[in-house]
Amino acid sequence: MNITLTDLNMTYANGKQALRNISFDMQSPNLTGLLGPNGAGKSTLMKLLVSELLPTSGGIQLNGSPLNKVEKQLKSALGYLPQSFGLYDELTVWQFLDYMSALKGIKNSKEAIRKVIEETNLTAKYKARIRTLSGGQRQRVGIAQALLGNPELLIFDEPTVGLDPEERINFRNLFSRTAEDKIVLLSTHIIEDIQSVCNRLIVMNEGRLLFDGTPEELIGLAYGHVGILEEQVDNNEKQGYQITSRINTTRGVICRIVAEVLPAFAQPVEPTLEDAYMYRISKGVGLR
Ligand SMILES: Nc1ncnc2c1ncn2[C@@H]1O[C@H](COP(=O)(O)OP(=O)(O)OP(=O)(O)O)[C@@H](O)[C@H]1O
């Protein structure tokens, strides 16, 4: 399977331009992480990919055909977890997944449901009504319905929201296993989720694509632009750099900063993926 996005622009009815000239392609197998601050346009991009919204201009092709011409093919190949997901509170987990498999036209539904319940660690809860579940368990039901029927294309909008650290690790492993023969696109604010599983990163901000490459390439771009310094820098000097974190130490507070040109009083350090992401966002427009 391959998906090509060409010069996508999306402006909402209120005039808000959520996407500007987005172009990239994805080919299976592929596990891509979509990173960007609030309002970057990640959810809008995902809604266009699942044909829930139409672009204002530009196009999406699925295996070489325009998406609007192959909607049936898309629907049968798609598993989608939207950001806000309405679950049917009075149904049990099994009933809900049974209902979703009927909507998806899955043939061997019992087997398919059993498989996703196991994969998402919901075996103890399959008879529970959805209203009785915790936030993390509900999120797992959302992931389970996306996985139903082993779809070739998985689009997850913030899949790890509400999951505890142990569950997040389980899901990272699940995503890596799942991606072996599929296209998986997942958006997240949690950089660790992406670092450990994604072989490709797309960074967006204000509707623009800022970076498309491997996590290592993103880190490579930040070398020489990350440093640490002690907090007691006087205010006049606090220019030209951005503080990304503060660490309390016995010597006082140490700040981690990113800057185009590091100030002389900062000590350069090896960038993490999070630093590299912050550096790329702070640099603004322009691919790579
Ligand atoms: N239905 C809508 N009508 C008008 N503007 C919208 C609509 N949906 C989103 N927007 C705006 O479009 C921009 C992109 O929003 P989008 O939800 O795609 O961003 P996001 O990266 O997913 O952010 P978040 O991580 O906060 O969900 C934002 O400025 C948002 O306010």
From TrEMBL:
<protein>
    <submittedName>
        <fullName>ABC transporter ATP-binding protein</fullName>
    </submittedName>
</protein>
<dbReference type="InterPro" id="IPR003593">
    <property type="entry name" value="AAA+_ATPase"/>
</dbReference>
<dbReference type="InterPro" id="IPR003439">
    <property type="entry name" value="ABC_transporter-like_ATP-bd"/>
</dbReference>
<comment type="similarity">
    <text>Belongs to the ABC transporter superfamily.</text>
</comment>
<dbReference type="GO" id="GO:0005524">
    <property type="term" value="F:ATP binding"/>
</dbReference>
<keyword id="KW-0813">Transport</keyword>
<dbReference type="GO" id="GO:0016887">
    <property type="term" value="F:ATP hydrolysis activity"/>
</dbReference>
<dbReference type="InterPro" id="IPR017871">
    <property type="entry name" value="ABC_transporter-like_CS"/>
</dbReference>
<dbReference type="InterPro" id="IPR027417">
    <property type="entry name" value="P-loop_NTPase"/>
</dbReference>
<keyword id="KW-0547">Nucleotide-binding</keyword>
<dbReference type="Pfam" id="PF00005">
    <property type="entry name" value="ABC_tran"/>
</dbReference>
<feature type="domain" description="ABC transporter">
    <location>
        <begin position="3"/>
        <end position="231"/>
    </location>
</feature>
<keyword id="KW-0067">ATP-binding</keyword>
